[in-house]
Amino acid sequence: MALVGTGTQGINLWGKNLQRNYSDYVGSCDINPQRLAYGKDHIGCDYPTFADFEEMMKMTKLDALIVTTVDSTHHEFIIRGQAIGLDQRAATVGRRSLRRDTSHHQLR
Description:
With 108 residues, the protein is of the alpha/beta class. It is built from five helices and four strands, in the order E-H-E-H-E-H-E-H-H. The chain has helices spanning 8-21, 33-43, 53-59, 74-83, 95-101, and strands spanning 2-4, 27-29, 49-50, 65-67. The chain has a four-stranded parallel β-sheet, with helices on both faces. The two termini are 19 Å apart. Residues 100-108 have low confidence and may be disordered.
């Protein structure tokens, strides 16, 4: 399991819970290195961090993905997760963009 987006929602709503309840937490990804470092410190566990999502997907054994990036980019990461076979449970406000960009994927 990995987290993409280490802003307030990512580290407070998801990060500490993931660290506490899942031993298979494999890493976090964010384009902002300061936010990524703060998130790792705030969550309080030792896991790899990545500034590049593609690198995280290659370097970890990802079985689930939690996307907490800005709403306008949720669908991009959901689609990329689907492409490698991750089960998706989309909770995004941008359903229209998700439908548009996933026309070649089956939504669940």
